[in-house]
Amino acid sequence: MPYTIKEVSEMTGIPASTLRYYDKEGLLPFIERKASGYRLFAESDIGMLRVIECLKHTGMPIKDIRKFAEWAQQGDASLQERYEMFLERRRVVEAQMEALKKTLELIEHKCWYYETALAAGTEAIHKKAPPCEDRQQLSEEHK
């Protein structure tokens, strides 16, 4: 059963304007159209849209997503290229996760810093701050 752009938007959470943009940019070469020009999406197209969204969330440029869509259209002839692309995406996401982990560590430190200062009523408590391993004890003492 084919789906309209509105139905696909509701199913995937991707705005219709984004779906039109993807089509305009050549990311959806597989989409069929009615004689009136309305787009018709198949069930398999929904899966491909989810992959496109996944790639977009990794920061992959539109031109590279377009290349992936072209490779997908080629079938088995492009298996190696698609595999290598996903290996690279995995490396990118792992690096992003590592960077986010470091960001979270700093945020956690600052949360501890302000919780402790608020409990003591002053930031001056940190002027004589103990090493990191003693932070939990300091936080407990000032509750």
Keywords, separated by commas or semicolons:
2 strands, 143 residues, mainly alpha
Mean pLDDT: 90
- Tertiary shape: elongated
What low-confidence regions span 5 or more consecutive residues with pLDDT below 50? none
| Rg, Å, rounded | 25 Å
Helical segment count = 6
Largest sheet: 2 strands, antiparallel
Helix and strand element order:
HHEEHHHH
Share of residues in strands: under 5%
Structural class by helix and strand composition: mainly alpha
Annotation, overall tally of beta strands: 2
Written description of the protein model:
With 143 residues, the chain is mostly helical. The chain has helices at residues 5-12, 16-24, 43-57, 62-74, 79-120, 135-141, and strands at 32-33, 39-40. The mean pLDDT is 90.
Task: Give a brief outline of the structure.
The chain has helices at 5-12, 16-24, 43-57, 62-74, 79-120, 135-141, and strands at 32-33, 39-40.
Helix/strand layout:
Elements: H1 5-12, H2 16-24, E1 32-33, E2 39-40, H3 43-57, H4 62-74, H5 79-120, H6 135-141
